[in-house]
């Protein structure tokens, strides 16, 4: 796929992308959660990234798309069936990360749009995602892209106790 006018293109992730995705995922976690999660927790989660990505790309229930800037993967999104309840047919944005040097260039929005299109084309409704309550930057991003907090919260431990909020995509205003 050729780069668009913004200098990047979005395509399906390939098995050969696993090392680059793992590296990007580690860097993006460090950048996104530096002031939210303890450093040790970030290191611990990142320790398994190289092993995790080949498995993720082989999992038929998940689909990943990457934003490509020239020879570099600048970001990715993962989509899958909603796994937090028995709600049959719902879809989930399982992760969306963009390398910090590419923030504010439309890459996150393009990846999110691709993920939403894919889930809708598979009739996976509603579309949800989890976001850390303290991740205000991500929450603003999702709110600016038609996601709304649905009132559901859960506690997770990522080094320390954290609260995740469930956001739901609003198909129509």
Give a brief outline of the structure.
With 173 residues, this protein is of the alpha+beta class. 34% of the residues lie in helices and 33% in strands. It has a domain at 9-128: Aminopeptidase.
Named CATH topology of the domain at 9-128: Aminopeptidase
Query: What is the end-to-end distance?
Result: 32 Å
- The coarse overall form would be globular
Report the sheet-strand fraction.
Answer: 25-35%
Poorly predicted runs: none
The helix content, as a percent range, equals 25-40%
- Tally of DSSP β-strands: 7
Question: Strands of the biggest beta sheet: in what spatial order?
Answer: 1-2-3-4-5-7-6
Q: From the 3D coordinates, which CATH architecture of the domain at 9-128 would you assign?
A: 3-Layer(aba) Sandwich
- CATH homologous superfamily grouping of the domain at 9-128: Gcn5-related N-acetyltransferase (GNAT)
**Main sheet overview:** 7 strands, mixed
Q: How many distinct helices?
A: 5
The average pLDDT score comes to 92
The secondary-structure class comes to: alpha+beta
Order of helices and strands: EHHHEEEHEHEE
Q: What is the highest CATH level, the class of the domain at 9-128?
A: Alpha Beta
What's the Cα radius of gyration? 15 Å
């Amino acid at each position: 796929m050729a780069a668009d006018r913004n200098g990047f293109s979005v395509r399906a992730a390939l098995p050969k992308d696993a090392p680059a995705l793992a590296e990007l995922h580690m860097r993006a976690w460090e950048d996104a959660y530096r002031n939210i999660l303890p450093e040790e927790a970030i290191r611990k989660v990142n320790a398994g990234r190289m092993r995790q990505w080949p498995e993720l790309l082989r999992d038929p229930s998940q689909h990943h798309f990457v934003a490509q800037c020239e020879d570099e993967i600048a970001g990715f999104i993962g989509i899958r069936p909603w796994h937090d309840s028995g709600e049959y047919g719902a879809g989930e944005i399982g992760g969306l990360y963009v390398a910090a040097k590419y923030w504010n260039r439309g890459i996150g929005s393009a990846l999110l749009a691709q993920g939403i299109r894919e889930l809708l084309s598979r009739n996976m409704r509603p579309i949800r995602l989890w976001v850390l309550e303290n991740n205000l930057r991500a929450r603003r991003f999702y709110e600016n892209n038609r996601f709304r907090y649905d009132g559901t919260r859960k506690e997770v431990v990522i080094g320390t106790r954290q609260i995740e909020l469930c956001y739901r995509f609003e198909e129509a205003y």
